[in-house]
Amino acid sequence: MNRSSRENSGTKRGKAANFVVQGSILAAAGILVRIIGMLYRMPLNDIIGKQGNGYYTSAYNVYNILLILSSYSMPVAVSKMISSRLARGEYANCRRILRVGLIYATVAGGAAAAILWFGADLFAELIKTPMSRYALKTLAPTIWIMAYLGVLRGYFQGMGTMVPTAFSQIIEQIVNAVVSVVAAGLLFQTGLSLNAARGAEDYSYALGAAGGTIGTGAGALTALLFFILLTATTGERALLSIKRKPGSGRPRRESYGRLMYLLTITVVPIVISSGVYNCSNVVDNYLFGQGMDRLGYGADEIAIFWGALGQYQLLFNIPVAVSNALSSSLIPSLTRAVSRGDRKQARARIASSIRFSMLIAIPAAVGITVLADPVCNLLFVSEDNSLLIRLSMAGSLAVVFYSLSTVTNAVLQGLNRMDLPIRHSAIALIVHVAVLEILLLGLKLGIYSVVIANIVFAFVMCLLNGFSIRRAARYRQEIKKTFLLPALCSVFMGAAAYGVYRGLLAAFPEGMLKGRLGMAVLVIPSVAVAMGVYGLLLVKLGAINEKELREMPMGGRLAGLFKRLGLL
After folding, report:
1. Can you list the alpha helix ranges (DSSP code H) found in 508-543?
2. Looking at residues 521-535, what average pLDDT do you find?
3. What span, in angstroms and rounded, lies between the C-alpha atoms of 332 and 329?
4. What pLDDT is attached to residue 220?
5. In this structure, are residues 312 and 398 in contact, taking their beta carbons and an 8 Å threshold?
6. How big is the chain by its Cα radius of gyration, in Å?
7. Which of 40, 59, 45, 49 is nearest to 138 (CA)?
8. What CA–CA distance (Å, rounded) separates 352 from 350?
9. Are 347 and 473 in contact (CB under 8 A)?
10. Residue 57, pLDDT score
11. Distance between CA atoms of 56 and 138, rounded to whole angstroms?
12. 4 falls in which pLDDT band (50, 70, 90)?
């Protein structure tokens, strides 16, 4: 191999490693954000209870769908447009895309905020939780803030750096945690006064839930201020630091009108795809509320069931956050490979993202199943968690399918096949609704109907996306190291974790295992042993090699440790 070939090969390996590292940075931030979310939801849940959590979750479902329709796709769309122009050295057009994105955010974000504010009462009635209207109103301004935030995150992601997004997510969640708990406590007390004055019981839960949603807006505003400062001080320098390729000539300058058109046709397919993909929660909320109302359940009972589902989703969302982070990193990276016509690099990106996602999702699903009892009682210690524990065990498989469907959606978007996730989501949603109605009204499985229908939805998405990726990229999915070996390692990991848990349960007196401290004594050693067993088995069985390990964050140290143990 000559020198230029070696340099070219080294550059490609470096870019591949950087893609994994950038995705891992965002994944690590996503996990940390979800952990902070779990930690603050414990005192928040202690304040507002399952009924308040039901109002909180219902409001978030409506907020999320409006956020998706207005601005959720902005980071993906902007990063996709920025990365493709950077590949051609069109730096002036990148600055123009930023300005166009901010104009789009003003219109779309403002419209969605107005719809949520003025439509809060209607939405709350439709989902059969009328008292969630207070939480809906407090979330309205957040949609507008998130629109601007999405554009600025996409700008930096398009330049290939996930660090600003990762850092902003962390500070956003910290502010969210503090403000949510404080505001929920204050407004819950206000609600108690209203209960006494009006002879009611629900105002404390409803206003407490609204207090929890205030933190979301405060966190988003903090992150936006961070990005405004970052863009004003380093945004231009970051763009200019990317060297133009020699001989690239003078790039053409695109008009603002053309860029607005291109942004719109980039956003719309992603919005429709994400909207259909994520609207299942709102559809579930509506169908479940209407169905349970038809079966004779009251609004308070419906809110309690939905609150338990929200608690289950809190556990479920942590491993799925890894896939969301990988998706954000994958799209600009894959777009650049496609723009260059580099099929080999594109297939390498696809394989890396799917494999890394499964390395996290499969053991997470097993862990949730075997440790559902102590983990749920650790997080929500003040309640009867028997329903939540059963939901977590029944729905743990959703972690795998949602993680895989999230990544494969991003793959199709990066391959410029925007239409396919839309079609697949629509087909999966039709199947999902049919399954939900049969289980809810026919078999009367209650809240379990929603969990099972969600698993079916994500599974159908995985199948359809997988077939399309194979055709579009001529990609053949590797099975053994991506699915089979992680699954085998996870089985032994789960057995070890459950064994430690049961051993500790037998070793300590029952009186010492009460409250959060007692549950932590059971959970922390079990999780630590599980992680150790899983990591050792991955290396021992060849599911991950030294080169792949070193490309991951902290991988060099882990590789050194495994070498000293004689495993590498």
Report:
1. 515-540
2. 92
3. 6
4. 94
5. no
6. 24
7. 59
8. 6
9. yes
10. 84
11. 11
12. very low
DSSP-H helix ranges across 199-279: 203-230, 236-240, 256-278
What are the structure tokens assigned to 88, written together?
């051609």
Report yes or no: 495 and 353 within 8 Å, Cβ to Cβ. Answer: no
- Rounded CA-CA distance 530/498 in Å is 9
Residue 122 neighbours by CB under 8 Å, 6+ apart: none
Tell me the residue ranges of DSSP E strands in 431-531.
Answer: none
Instruction: Identify the pLDDT of residue 268.
Output: 80
8 Å CB contact between 453 and 284: yes
What integer pLDDT is reported at residue 248 of this predicted model?
47
How far apart (Å, rounded) are the C-alpha atoms in residues 108 and 90? 27
Most confident of 211-220, 293-302, 328-337: 211-220
pLDDT at 397: 92
Q: What angle do CA 365, 369, 372 make, to 5 degrees?
A: 120
Angstrom distance (rounded) from CA 470 to CA 88:
28
What pLDDT score was predicted for residue 98?
A: 87
Count the neighbouring beta carbons within 10 Å of the beta carbon of residue 557.
11
Distance of CA 290 to the CA centre of its chain: 28
Q: Read off φ and ψ for residue 508, nearest 5 degrees.
A: -100, 145
Q: Tell me the pLDDT tens digit for each residue of 130-174.
A: 888 999 999 999 999 999 998 998 888 887 777 888 889 899 999
557 φ/ψ sector (left φ>0, alpha ψ -120 to 50, else beta): alpha
- On whether the CB atoms of residues 82 and 97 are closer than 8 A, the answer is yes
Half-sphere exposure of 492 (CA within 13 A, CB side): 15
For the record, the structure tokens of 492 come out as 């032994």
The H-or-E segment that residue 288 falls in is helix 280-294
**How far apart, in Å, are the Cα atoms of 10 and each of 15, 20, 87, 167, 550?**
9, 15, 19, 29, 15
> Which tokens is 245 given?
């390729």
| CA contacts within 13 A on the Cβ side of 244 | 13
**How do residues 490-507 score in pLDDT, each as one tens digit?**
999 999 999 999 999 888
pTM of the model: 0.71
For residue 536, CA distances in Å to 396, 480, 499, 542 come to 23, 17, 17, 10
pLDDT per residue as tens digits for the range 236-252:
555 555 545 444 445 57
Show the tokens assigned to 113: 């905020």
From the list 312, 309, 133, 318, the residue with the least C-alpha distance to 209 is: 133
Q: How far apart, in whole angstroms, are the C-alpha atoms of residue 260 and residue 214?
A: 32
Give the separation between CA 357 and CA 293, rounded to whole angstroms: 39
**82-120 burial: b if 16+ Cβ within 10 Å, else e:** bbbbbbbbbbebbebbbebbbebbeebbebbbebbeebb
